[in-house]
Structure formats: structure tokens, C-alpha cells
Amino acid sequence: MTESPLRESKLPQIKPPSLQTATSSRVIAAGNHLPNQPRSATVTRQAEIQMSSSDTTSDKATAAFIRRTLCSHDVLLGNGEKGHNTPRPIEEVLPPLTSSNEVDLQLYGIIAVIIKEFVQTWYSKITPDHVFVNEVLQIIAHCTRALEQRLRKVDLEALLLDEIPELVEAHLSAFRIAKQQVSNRHSLVVDFRVVYHTLRPHPALSPVPNESVPSSIVEQRENESAWRQLLVQGVLAVLLPTEDLENACLRSLVAEIFAEMILGNGISGKACEGWLLWEGITRIAEVLQTDRDKEKGTRSYDADSEQPLSRLERHGLLSPPTDDRSGPSEPPLAHSGRHQSAPMTIAGLFWAAVQYVFLAGTAMCAAIAAVATSSSLPPRSVTGASGQSPVEAGHQSQFPQAEPSVVRRPLAFKRPIVSMKLWGCASKLVELDARMPWLSGFISILRWGALLGPGRVGDTDGVLDRFLSQTMQMRVLNPAILPTVLRTLRATLFPNNTLAPPRQPPSDEEAKLIKRRCAATLLGLLPTGVATAFFATVSQNEQLQQVEEILDCLDDAYLNKHLIFAIIELIVLRLVPELGERGVQELMDERLG
Predict the structure, then answer these.
(1) What range defines the domain where residue 585 resides?
(2) Per-residue confidence at 437, pLDDT binned at 50, 70, 90?
């Protein structure tokens, strides 16, 4: 860990000031030749804010912000070879965080905001030097490089497709059992949180906070704070070098930043709120809907404006159109759908059959292409000396073994993607067993046939397994999308590289509107025929209510903490497995002697 990993790429070069001046002059000149239009001060101000926010997220602006915040003047200036007026590249001034310059740029942008807002506000009043800040950066860089090396050894497919969905499925089961238990008239337990916490207890969330007992709220907050400190201190005890671990002042400051600001204020204080989770789901659904529209190709102006607007209008989220031909008691889509389906002619049936044949042909071509290219895809596992089949090894990995050495020994086979918990979690979320039991059984038969049927196409390293693994690697686990994700995260949390003003929690009515918009966006991803068949109703209001009932599992922030804390612990244990074998004090004593 003493050597820095090799760099894969370099930061984009910054243009000289002359080019920047020429570029800005051309922009101003082009703006002066625009036709005279009446402008309001509000529109101009909004445009300036949008331009400034977009400029702060660019690579050039981010690099300049990092230099001003994290680099001292004498270190930033070039040596005798480059001249006194040429700034040194960031990768030569700051220690590398990862093996990619693009990722380091975005990570240092986030770190610069944190250092500026939470360290320099009081440290600059004591001394103008950067020694303390440099020490903190060295500690963070050492931790990130160690985490990157450990991340390469983690099975990310199993983590994202099997282990985390298993926690979500357990959360859904406990939530629905608690809801059913409280609604039972013969039950003595009336507190919804008590039933859930009994089913899924967590030491950081004990006891259950009750407004009638103020001491329970204080005790729960103290336990949660202690859990955060233990978690961060345990990670630092494993990742930090011995000389940095012995520096109690630096260790306490880094632990305070991660435990209180990131875990406490960021995750526990905000990310566990139901309305914030609904907003996040809404943004993801909007991105998916935009990508789907792009894949369909260019559409006419009327079709492009009608489809998204009508989906929102019929859910009551936008004002109805001027030529409203449907009554207030009947959803517009249901009304228009019956009129469109009534005049079904032979020509309509013919074109519908042509469309289905075209879709079947496209699916067959995709299947043939997957089969043809599966042989060239890399295998997911390495064949070992074990005589177990991949399916048996995947199922037996869920149960503890009697011999401790067998637990630490890596499995010879990876679990097939078809048998992972993601599919069961999705079925549990939409209540497929209750809504369409025939479809749930049919999917189970297909999965069984893929795993144990002829050819075993869904078994480990099978045709379907390799295709799904390659799709996962290209679409989700692609390192090229990480800088974009970090840039978006920084622009959302820290607009204009500053702390965003504290957002007022929405009222109950505003939270209901956020939830309704989330349900409408999710419903907009489904075709009309699929939504009608799945929800067993033509009424859009009833469909919307059913989607809102599915989203009820994220309503309570206290229950969401159980799920999010369990996911955090799972990720930490996969990255730092030493914490699952020894306690924090044992690790500290071992490192410090």
C-alpha cells in the first residue's frame, strides 16, 4: 500500500488565458448580434444561475476550485523548470485517490467542499498554513487507495443482485407483517414500529423512539451515534497506516467527518426520509423514460408532446387540456382507450398481427445473437476441484458450515444470476404472487428449466448466465460512468460548490404530492395494456392508488433506517471482512501494540 497505483488517464489540459479571453469575446459578440427581444430580469437571472451551476461542474472549473481550496500557494506554483506562473497539474500536487484521474477529480471536488465548509472555517482562524489539511488529505488518500484494492476482490454481481435484494425482500416482509398485525382487531400491539423492530432488531435503533417517552428518543440517538463511531473507527483501524493511526487528533477529525457529517447528517438525517427516497426514484424513472424515448427514435411534435403530457394529465399532476372531452368522474385515458378500441376492423387486426410478428422476430434475433456471442464472453467462475454443481454450490453458500476453514475458503463456483434474490425481491415488491399467481408459477418453471433443464443455459457460465453477466458489467458496473455519477452527486448535494441551504421538510400534503408524482412516473414506464392487465383495472386513478400502496414501504424514516443501516453494514463487511471476525478494540490493540 506504500506505492501509488498507476494512473490510467490524465486530466484535461486547461486552456491558456488568451484562448479563454478569445472564447468569451466571441460569445459576447455573438450575443450582441442576436435580434432584440424583450427580456425580464427574472429570466435573465435564472439563465445566469443555470450557467454558473453548469460552469462549476465542468472539469476546468472543478480543477480551479480544488487548487484554490486544497493546494497552498508555494506548492501550487511550478518549479524552476516550468516557470513561476504555470500551475502544476493536480495529479502532481495532491496524492492520488484511485487509479483514475477522472474519478480523482470528482472525488477531490467533493472533498474540497467538505474541507472548505467544515475545516477551514475554524482552522484558518488559527494559522494560515496547510499542514493540517495536507495530513487529512494523506489519510483520506490512503483509505481510498486501500478501499479500491479491496473493491477489486469483492463480487459486485453477488452484492448488487443477491445480497442487497435479500435485505430489501426481508424489509418488505417485515413491513407487511407489521402492517397486517397492527390492522388486526384481535392484536394487543398497536405500535407499528414495535412490531417491525421486533422482527428486524438493530442495536443502533434500540429502543423504539416514542414521543410519549422522551427518554427513549434520547437513548436511541445516543445508540445510533455510538454505532456510527464504532463503524468508522473500525474501518480506520484496518485501513490507516500505523503512524496515522497513532495520531489521535487526525483520526478523531476524520472519524467525525465520516461518522457525523456523512453518516449522521447525510444518510441518517436525510437519505432515510421517505419523501427524499420517492424523489430519487422519480428522477431515476424519468431518466429511464427519457432513454426509452430515445431508443424509439425521432417522433413527430404532436406525438412527442402528447405522450408525456397525457400521462401526467390523467393523473391530475398537470392542468387538463383545453379541449377536455372527458368528464371529471372518468379518467381521460380510459375514456379515449374505449373509443380507440371500439372500431376494431380487419385492417387493425392485420396490422396488430404484423406488429406482434415483428416483435417476435426481434426477440428471436436478440436470442440468436446472445447465443452466438456467449461463447466468446469471459467465464464468471473458475472451475475448482469440488464435485458440486454450480447450482448446489450457490444454494449451499447460504448456510453456515460446521468447519471454520470451509467458511473462509472461496467457493469454486459463483451462484447463477438467474437464481439470485433480485428476481424474488422484484416479485415480492409488486406482489406478483397475489396479483398474477399464474405468471409467478410460469416464471418459476422457466427459471427451473434454465437452471436444470436441457443445456442448463441459466447455470453458472451458461449461455444466459454469461449474457446477463456481460450486460451487468456493461450497463451497471462500467467504471466509465462513475465520474458522471460523482459529478451529479456533487452538483446535487453541493450546488455551486457550497452547502445547499437546509431544505424544509415537506408537510403531509406536500409529501403526498411527492409520493403521487413518483407513482405517476413509475406508472408512465408501463405500456397502457400491461398496466391494465397487471392492476386488473382500466381506471388510471385505481392504478395510481395501487402503485402508491407499493410505495408505502418507504413511508416511515425509522423503518427505512433499518434497511439502509443493514445495507451499509453489508457493504462494510464485504470491504473490510476483519470487522466480522474481531471487534474494534481488538483491531486497535493489534495495530497499536
Answers:
(1) 157-271+559-592
(2) very high
